[in-house]
């Protein structure tokens, strides 16, 4: 499947997309010793999801200033554009960007947006932000993150999410943060149904009133829930390569994305933390095409589903859809 098919990515953690060479270089510049997080070939090394979260947080250590995030954003968007991504939404955490201090957060955000503007002019790729508290840091910190999100909500910060350890607390612990984000006009998504079972998806829908679910693949264990997702048009941000790399499914053919789609669920495809999972959007497409015999028509439909589910304004959405139409004309 062509790496050049235009792609729309809805689920990407900015720091998790950092090329390992970039983080190693930055660590050397800043004299931060994080050699332990790399294997002998220079890739990120971790044992399981919970260790991955620790390695992820260690990888953010050399990212200290807005300028560092400017460089990070440029490096990430260069990789995404090379894989054919034309529009991307990225998770941003005020926890990492200024420690939830609003004025520091504004500076980090400004630097990220400037880099995104440069990348748009350079590569044509469009980026928008989803502010995301880290679940295992707890609901009180999530409230501070929600206030940062609410203060900067607009045409660029378009969404609010929930990442981190899905086994830490319950979605309802984060209702206050999600209510504040919703009141500020932000669109909502949350990680669920990856490490939690189908009930975690039900909880996120009921208690956080999200319109998209990050992963959500374990809904397949409850077919009544699958029907509900299909009927309500809930969009799943599916990251198959991430699920396989983290051992949730044995191999590509065992992944439920195909069955979810067959059962009428709106599935989309993303990379999550591409270098951690040795993937790119082009590789996801290739693997899916091989595993499920998906042709260009399926990928066209998935890209359009993603564009329609994007949290951006209507004019931006129309532009993405036009680019998709052109590619498949
Ligand atoms: N899942 C959950 N939390 C995360 C991830 C992820 O893939 N990456 C960074 N935080
Ligand atoms: Zn994720």
What's the arrangement of secondary structure elements?
Layout: E1 7-13, H1 20-30, H2 49-59, H3 66-82, E2 85-92, H4 102-123, E3 126-131, H5 139-152, E4 157-160, H6 175-183, E5 187-192, H7 198-208, E6 212-215, H8 223-232, E7 235-238, H9 240-245, H10 257-262, E8 266-269, H11 281-292, H12 296-309, H13 314-327
Family: Belongs to the metallo-dependent hydrolases superfamily. Adenosine and AMP deaminases family.
InterPro entries: A_deaminase_dom, Ado/ade_deaminase, Metal_Hydrolase
EC number: 3.5.4.4
Question: What keywords describe this structure?
Answer:
metal-binding; zinc; eight-stranded parallel β-sheet; single chain; TIM Barrel; 329 residues; alpha/beta; A_deaminase_dom; Metal_Hydrolase; hydrolase; 48% helix; binds hypoxanthine
Write up what this structure looks like.
The protein is an alpha/beta fold and 329 residues long. The protein has one domain (2-18, 63-327): Alpha-Beta Barrel (TIM Barrel), CATH 3.20.20.140. 48% of the residues lie in helices and 13% in strands. It is built from 13 helices and 8 strands. It has helices spanning 20-30, 49-59, 66-82, 102-123, 139-152, 175-183, 198-208, 223-232, 240-245, 257-262, 281-292, 296-309, 314-327, and strands at 7-13, 85-92, 126-131, 157-160, 187-192, 212-215, 235-238, 266-269. Helix 5 packs parallel to helix 6 (175-183). The longest helix has 22 residues, at 102-123. It is globular, with a radius of gyration of 18 Å. Residues 11, 13, 163, 191, 214, 272 line the site of zinc ion (ZN).
């Amino acid at each position: 499947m062509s790496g050049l098919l235009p792609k729309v990515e809805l689920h990407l953690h900015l720091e998790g997309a950092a090329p390992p060479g970039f983080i190693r270089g930055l660590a050397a510049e800043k004299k931060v010793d994080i050699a332990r997080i790399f294997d002998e070939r220079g890739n990120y090394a971790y044992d399981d999801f919970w260790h991955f979260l620790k390695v992820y947080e260690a990888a953010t250590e050399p990212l200290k200033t807005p300028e560092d995030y400017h460089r990070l954003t440029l490096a990430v968007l260069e990789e995404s554009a090379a894989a054919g991504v034309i529009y991307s939404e990225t998770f941003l955490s005020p926890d990492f960007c200024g420690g939830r201090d609003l004025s520091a957060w504004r500076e980090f955000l400004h630097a990220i947006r400037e880099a995104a503007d440069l990348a748009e002019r350079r590569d044509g790729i469009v980026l928008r932000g989803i502010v995301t508290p880290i679940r295992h840091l707890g609901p009180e910190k999530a409230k501070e993150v929600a206030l940062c999100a609410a203060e900067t909500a607009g045409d660029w910060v378009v969404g609010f999410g929930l990442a981190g350890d899905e086994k830490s607390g319950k979605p309802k612990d984060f209702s206050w943060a999600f209510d504040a984000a919703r009141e500020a006009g932000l669109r909502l998504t949350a990680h669920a149904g990856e490490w939690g079972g189908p009930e975690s998806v039900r909880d996120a829908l009921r208690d956080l009133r999200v319109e998209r679910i990050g992963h959500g693949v374990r809904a397949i264990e409850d077919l009544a829930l699958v029907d509900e997702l299909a009927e309500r048009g809930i969009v799943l941000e599916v990251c198959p390569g991430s699920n396989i790399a983290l051992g949730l499914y044995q191999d590509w053919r065992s992944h439920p994305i195909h069955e979810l789609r067959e059962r009428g669920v709106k599935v989309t495809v993303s990379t999550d933390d591409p270098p951690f999972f040795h993937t790119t959007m082009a590789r996801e497409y290739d693997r899916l095409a091989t595993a499920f015999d998906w042709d260009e028509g399926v990928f066209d439909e998935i890209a359009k589903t993603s564009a329609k589910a994007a949290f951006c304004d209507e004019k931006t959405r129309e532009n993405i859809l036009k680019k998709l139409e052109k590619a498949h004309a």
